[in-house]
Write a structure and sequence with these properties.
single chain, Rossmann fold, 4 helices, 19% strand, globular, binds pyrazine-2-carboxylic acid, binds zinc ion
Length: 196
């Protein structure tokens, strides 16, 4: 069943961590992660037509970040600030005026959420955003935690379920994360749900 979602004033698009290191060939590759890029480009085109502000978060770690295995963390080194792995996917068509949100920049703090330790919530409020469309990588980490914080901050969330991909360290982590986001109040939508 498709629903008819009309985008307009008060909406914003948030693209989470679509960076080389999370794509196939990257240091923390999400299988099929590159598939979100063309779909996000379609959402970006819709955002342009509807004049929605666009935000793009980046995992932006120092070389000694606590989440890296040499520091006792869970992950291989990834998205080190200023490296190619931390660049946005080259095929992602972010507009010139997209607002970039760097997170995970403090050596001793993990920050999966684009709201954690950033100005994102105040940026959104300052331009009267009430509803955020969220897509990107990875469903079971940064997307999940970003959506949770968005809800906590009082924003409505449209989860772009055709524009997310999970790490799936455990089978079905992504599916569980999606259910959890719905339980928190996010609405899952796909491109065909969006009114042209
Ligand atoms: C992420 C693991 C570590 C993510 C970031 O963007 O989902 N996952 N750092
Ligand atoms: Zn990270």
């Amino acid at each position: 069943m498709t629903m008819e979602v009309k985008l307009g004033a008060g909406d914003a698009l948030l693209v989470v961590d679509v960076q080389n290191d999370f794509l196939p060939g990257g240091r923390l590759a999400v299988a099929g992660g590159d598939a979100v890029v063309p779909v996000l480009n379609r959402y970006l085109a819709l955002a342009a037509v509807r004049r929605l502000p666009v935000y793009a978060s980046r995992d932006w770690h120092p070389a000694n970040h606590c989440s890296f295995r040499p520091q006792g963390g869970a992950w291989p080194e990834h998205c080190v600030a200023g490296t190619r792995g931390a660049d946005f996917a080259p095929g992602l068509k972010l507009p010139q005026d997209a607002i970039v949100i760097d997170k995970g920049t403090a050596p001793q703090r993990e920050a999966y959420s684009a709201f954690e330790g950033t100005e994102l919530a105040s940026f959104l409020r300052s331009v009267q955003v009430g509803r955020v469309l969220v897509g990107g990588l990875a469903t079971d980490y940064c997307v999940l935690n970003t959506v949770r914080d968005a809800v906590t901050h009082g924003f409505q969330v449209l989860l772009l379920r055709d524009a997310i991909k999970a790490v799936d360290v455990n089978a079905d982590d992504g599916k569980r994360a999606e259910r959890e986001m719905q339980r928190l109040g996010a609405t899952s939508v796909e491109l065909p749900d969006i009114a042209p």
